[in-house]
Prior knowledge:
2 copies of one chain form a homodimer.
Chain A: E1 10-11, E2 36-43, E3 46-47, E4 51-54, E5 58-60, H1 65-69, E6 72-74, E7 77-81, E8 87-90, H2 92-105, H3 113-126, E9 138-147, E10 160-169, E11 177-181, H4 203-214, E12 219-223, E13 231-234, E14 238-243, E15 246-249, H5 260-272, E16 275-278, H6 283-291, E17 295-302, E18 306-315, E19 318-321, H7 329-341, E20 352-354
Parallel strand pairs in A: 1-4, 11-12, 11-18, 15-16
Antiparallel strand pairs in A: 2-3, 2-4, 2-10, 6-9, 7-8, 7-9, 8-20, 9-10, 12-13, 14-15, 14-17, 17-18, 18-19
Residues 76, 197, 233, 236-238, 257, 259-262, 301-303 of chain B line the site of one pyridoxal-5'-phosphate.
Amino acid sequence: xxxxxxxxxxxxxxxxxxxxxxxxxxxxxxxxxxxxxxxxxxxxxxxxxxxxxxxxxxxxxxxxxxxxxxxxxxxxxxxxxxxxxxxxxxxxxxxxxxxxxxxxxxxxxxxxxxxxxxxxxxxxxxxxxxxxxxxxxxxxxxxxxxxxxxxxxxxxxxxxxxxxxxxxxxxxxxxxxxxxxxxxxxxxxxxxxxxxxxxxxxxxxxxxxxxxxxxxxxxxxxxxxxxxxxxxxxxxxxxxxxxxxxxxxxxxxxxxxxxxxxxxxxxxxxxxxxxxxxxxxxxxxxxxxxxxxxxxxxxxxxxxxxxxxxxxxxxxxxxxxxxxxxxxxxxxxxxxxxxxxxxxxxxxxxxxxxx
Amino acid sequence: xxxxxxxxxxxxxxxxxxxxxxxxxxxxxxxxxxxxxxxxxxxxxxxxxxxxxxxxxxxxxxxxxxxxxxxxxxxxxxxxxxxxxxxxxxxxxxxxxxxxxxxxxxxxxxxxxxxxxxxxxxxxxxxxxxxxxxxxxxxxxxxxxxxxxxxxxxxxxxxxxxxxxxxxxxxxxxxxxxxxxxxxxxxxxxxxxxxxxxxxxxxxxxxxxxxxxxxxxxxxxxxxxxxxxxxxxxxxxxxxxxxxxxxxxxxxxxxxxxxxxxxxxxxxxxxxxxxxxxxxxxxxxxxxxxxxxxxxxxxxxxxxxxxxxxxxxxxxxxxxxxxxxxxxxxxxxxxxxxxxxxxxxxxxxxxxxxx
Lengths: 355, 355
Ligand SMILES: Cc1ncc(COP(=O)(O)O)c(C=O)c1O
Ligand SMILES: Cc1ncc(COP(=O)(O)O)c(C=O)c1O
């Protein structure tokens, strides 16, 4: 296989870390970046020598395809530090596989596995002091690939840049969210690329979400674009419903991102002996369950917020407020998952990888 | 209205034009750019002083939102020069309105009309020698807006850059195209943003188009994502069918770009007394018309290729070759439109604007 032999990473270190200027008690999500970044360019049909360099601006031609045709994919993962100072990743092989699945759908070249993991591990070791221990603190990791080729012609590029940038993230509680169920707008089409973590899947959500915010909702739960009768997922989270003691979530499809948190929760639930149903879920079924008192919980699941309880939802002009649950599934899942991520619990699934 | 007062454009001219290095007889589309570009930044809720500067690279933070969430819109228009050396634009008000319609759907700020036209006219005057006369030669103009704000948070940005770059385009005949009718993949969803000229609508087409190319087709005709029974549009063109002497095209919707060439052809056809039907068109109807001999022509319509005749189409494993028509509608439309664009014919619609 071409590119299978890992190359030495060329490393240029910063002269002086900027870490002392960072207030780790007041971190806005995704705004502050660590001292270094990983870069690998694809030119002439090959990934070139990977580099780690000081975090800093990119220089691109205004005609670079990413600006015009959205040829860009990304991943979102986290590094967690335990009280002994060891750092862990959670199922990073899943992120690696997914970025290449996304890349394939966008006609972008596959990134070699060795480069991905060598780059990631080397970068995390170099910027180790940016990963703070403490339950809930983490380093958010953003691998991404952009089409850099200069020329405004609407076809796939011949030149790309793969990068990894990292941003320290704080443990925070943003409060339970209110969500609006989509009735008119859609996130993705059957036969489209909604299952890819592609740039083009996000910008289209901002305007409908802005309108939802004007109605007092923080997020949208997307429904299928054909009928708007079935729930799909939220902006950056898959969605779970608890009806009585059964946990429900929609099956993934070519419209829905196959979330790593989602599949981990399903595994945890099954291990715990919860009844889990992965099947199409009608909005009307959720409303009926609310009305007859069997709808106990709704929550989102994703790397950034882990598990995010929903306190209310809006649909067809009605507003539904959920009752707070004792011993909620959401809090059980959040704690179980974080215990594994922070090396506080046994990892019977083999999800944890030490850096 | 905020920003309504046009500001002086700050102009920095190049020292020496690079035009002498350009081979105008061998131009690949969208690869060579003129000496200058127009830039206007949106910061603190306001469009700042517009600038014209030498064409050159952009410097952006790796966390700029355009790289991650595809918040980017664009336009495609052309400047045409007649034999007297006068330069014309074709319905530029439509491009201006459309870029703001696209921007609204992507939760991006509106760009002021005065800035758009002052910027465009000033830039075209400065780079006038790049616009070559000769029927078919033109200057392709690419206005675009990208989200520049650094921070990987999945919401609309607070900072943007509006730019105009220009690329000389040659008269060329690429041959009639073969197209594949989409059966599985889709371009856009109902309730989505297919009607916007947004970056995210393009990258998703490259992979299906690559597969189509492997089957010997150059482009895809997209169908509706729900049933794949109705034809919609091509990658960068709207599509017309001529059945006997009736001209058919699909109505625009939230999935289809409202093409300026498309609406101009409809107006020309009506003026010419052709029977025009704008209505949903089933693929099966096109196949039936082929089989009974009434399908005379298929062609695409868009700014880049003007009118692009289709010589064959593929659908459900069958290949359909169209017969060449004498006095084709496609060639009539192409000539009529170009005669207006190049100031060779009377402009009864008032479409031409002198720069
Ligand atoms: C659209 C979408 N759905 C779901 C998720 C959750 O996926 P994961 O659990 O892998 O973070 C994400 C990303 O975080 C996403 O962008
Ligand atoms: C998706 C799509 N459809 C149709 C068109 C044709 O539009 P216009 O005639 O305004 O160039 C374009 C752009 O050129 C396009 O990108």
